[in-house]
Amino acid sequence: MKEMMTMIPTFEKALSLLEGRLLTYHEVVHTLKEYQLNQHLSELLERADKQPAILTKPTMCCQRCNNQVLDRFEQLTADKHYCLNCLNMGRILQGEYLYSLRERISNAPQKSASELLTWQGQLSAEQARAANDLINSLADPQHPHSIIAVTGAGKTEMIFPVIAKVLAAGGRVAIASPRIDVCRELYPRLQTAFAYTDSCLLYGGTDTPYDSVPLIVSTTHQLLRFAEAFDLLIVDEVDAFPYAGDESLHFAVKRAVKAEGKLVYLTATPDKTLEKAMRKKEITSTTLPARYHGFPLPEPVYYWLGDWRKAIRKQQNNSKLARLLKEFSQIQGVKLIFMPNIYLAECLFAWLQTLLPQQSLACVHSKDPDRKIKVQAVREGTVELLISTTILERGVTFTNCHVCIVGAESKLFSRAALVQMSGRVGRKQDFPTGTLIYAHEGVSLAMASARKQIKLMNQQARARGLIK
C-alpha cells in the first residue's frame, strides 16, 4: 500500500508533463528522463492520444508544423520521409507518432488576481486603457486582440492585469516571441511581477527543462510542441522574423490556444497581414501612439556618409564615418551602433578598437555565443559602445541609450527594423530623449517610411494630448 501511495504522485507528474503537449516518442522519453520518471513511459504512452507524425493522404502533411509542400520533405527510405520544414526541432519521421494528452481541469489558485500580481508599479492612463481592453476581450475568444503600441510604451506592463485574471481563474498563460533575446528579457520581469506563480522559460538550447507550470515564456518555435494548452497566449513582436511570414509558426500559435482560449498580439510595427485583418474586423485592436512617460518618440536625423563600406574596409580615419563615430562615442550613456550584417559589424569593431582606443567596445550578433554576457556588460557599465546587427532591434532596454544606424539605406533594414532600432532611444523616464542617427549613402524608401511613421505617431499623440 505504501508503494502505491508513492507511485501515484510521480505518475501524476508524468501525466502533467504531456498535458497540452505534442511530442515525438523520443521527446517523451527525454522529458521523463529529466524528471527521473522513466518507469512510467509505457503507462503514459497507453494513456496518451497518438496521431501519425506525417500523413500521406490526401497529400503529404507534417502533423507537427502542418507543412504540405512536397519539396520540404526528404526521403529517407522507400517508404519513409521526414519533414525539412521543422527539422530544427528534431527529425519527425513518417511511420512514427506524435503523443499528446488533453489538459485536465485544474483548480483555481487560492489567491486573487490582485494578490497574484506582485508588480508594484502604476499604469499610466493609456496603459490602463489598453489593459482594460485586454481584459474585456476575454469575453470574445473567437477574435484575437492586438495591442499596437509605439516602442517604449510599456507593453509588458499592460499585459500584467489580464495575465493575473486568467491565472486567478486557474488558467494557463504563455507569452511567446520569435526572438530568444526578447524571451530572456521578458522572463525575469514576469517572474518579479508574478512572484507567487511557478513559471518556465523555453527556447532552443536552454538548460532548463520544461515543466507544467501556469506561466510560460517561450519562443514561437517552441509552440510547435503544444496543442490546446493555453487559456491565454500572448505573442510579442508579432511582426518579427522568423514568425512574420512563417505559416507553420502561425499554425502552431493557433493550435496552442484552447478552443475557448484567447490569443493576443503585441507589436509596435504591424505588418500588412495584421493591418488587413484589423481592417476586416477579424482582429480587434487597441492603439497607443505615445510612450508611458509622455515624451515624444525621438525622430531620426539623416547623416550622409558617402561610401561607408570603403571607409570600413580601408579603415579610413579621415572619412565622414570616422568623424561621425568619434563624435558619437563622446556622448554620455550607452551607445548602440547597428550594422546591416555580421561581416560588416565585425570589420567595424576591429577598426574602432584602434580608432577609439579609450572606449570600451563590444560586438554582438546572432552567431555570438557570448551575446547575453555582453548585453549584461552594457547594463553594468563595463561596455560603453556596442556594435550589433538587428539581433538587438527589439526587446532590449538600456538606460540613457543613443543609436547610430550605419548603412541605414541597406536593403537588409526594413521599415519595421528601422523603427524598432530607433525605439531603443529615450525609453526611460529619467532619460526620455537621446541621439538617433540614420547614417547613409542615400536615403531609401524604408528610411523615409520609418521616419514618417515615427512622426505620425508623435502627431497623433500630440493631437490626443498625450505628449508633454
Task: Explain how this protein is built.
The chain has a seven-stranded parallel beta sheet with strand order 10-11-9-12-13-8-14. It has a six-stranded parallel beta sheet with strand order 15-20-19-16-18-17, sandwiched between helices. The chain has a three-stranded antiparallel beta sheet with strand order 1-7-2. The model is unreliable at 1-8 (pLDDT under 50). It has helices at 2-18, 25-34, 41-47, 113-116, 125-137, 155-158, 160-168, 180-193, 247-256, 272-279, 308-313, 320-329, 342-355, 371-380, 415-422, 445-463, and strands at residues 23-24, 49-52, 54-55, 61-62, 73-77, 80-83, 97-100, 145-149, 173-177, 199-202, 215-219, 230-236, 257-267, 284-288, 301-304, 334-338, 361-364, 385-388, 401-406, 436-440. It is α/β, with parallel strands linked by helices and 468 residues long.
Write the topology of this structure.
Elements: H1 2-18, E1 23-24, H2 25-34, H3 41-47, E2 49-52, E3 54-55, E4 61-62, E5 73-77, E6 80-83, E7 97-100, H4 113-116, H5 125-137, E8 145-149, H6 155-158, H7 160-168, E9 173-177, H8 180-193, E10 199-202, E11 215-219, E12 230-236, H9 247-256, E13 257-267, H10 272-279, E14 284-288, E15 301-304, H11 308-313, H12 320-329, E16 334-338, H13 342-355, E17 361-364, H14 371-380, E18 385-388, E19 401-406, H15 415-422, E20 436-440, H16 445-463
Helix pairs in contact: 5-7, 15-16
Task: Give a quick precis of the structure.
This protein is an alpha/beta fold. Helices cover 35% and strands 20% of the residues. The strands form 5 sheets. The chain has a 7-stranded parallel beta sheet.
